[in-house]
Amino acid sequence: MVLDLGLPHMDGLSVLKRWRGAGRDMPVLVLTARGSWSERVEGIDAGADDYLPKPFRMEELLARLRAIIRRSGGHSAPVITVNGTELDTKQMRLTVDGVPVNLSPQEYRLVSFLMLNKGRVVSQQELSEHLQSVHFERESNAVEVLVGRVRRKLPVALIETRRGFGYIVPDTASDAQ
């Protein structure tokens, strides 16, 4: 997981501490404009596996990510499960009660981002920024349309809307949408 500490409306270190407190042990590389030695120590003490201050070269980011992957044996938690819905991050496959769900690459990125952040409300802006890294169109309703497409493909209510805040995959998905 690559975490930028400059998240809109929240502090990235708080998010990282919450993840670690909840037992999430996926590898985390922190990116930030905060680059003093004390801030780097604070980030690592909060649970970051590595810390890269901005500006940086893409080659260094990729090298650090390869090192984190090497240290984690190539994966952290390859399968994320919520009420019978399984996301296999190694195979890049989603199944519901063992039945594969056919997703487009954008739909997979949306579902995987929400499931990797399960239990946390993810804003439309954050989703849009995450999806934009692969040439996602930033139209005002593009995220809503994509969420709607994913919901139609799933036989369960996995993604919940928090009006005015964003979307969440609860740790235990509810039947209400």
Automatic annotation (TrEMBL):
PROSITE patterns: OMPR_PHOB, RESPONSE_REGULATORY. Gene3D superfamilies: 3.40.50.2300, Winged helix-like DNA-binding domain superfamily/Winged helix DNA-binding domain. It comes from the Bacteria. Residues 77-171 form the OmpR/PhoB-type domain. GO terms for molecular function: phosphorelay response regulator activity; transcription cis-regulatory region binding. One of its GO terms (biological process) is regulation of DNA-templated transcription. Residues 1-69 form the Response regulatory domain. Keywords: DNA-binding, Phosphoprotein. PANTHER family: REGULATOR OF RPOS (PTHR48111), RESPONSE REGULATOR PROTEIN CARR (PTHR48111:SF37). This is Winged helix family two component transcriptional regulator. The lineage of its organism: Bacteria, Pseudomonadati, Pseudomonadota, Alphaproteobacteria, Hyphomicrobiales.
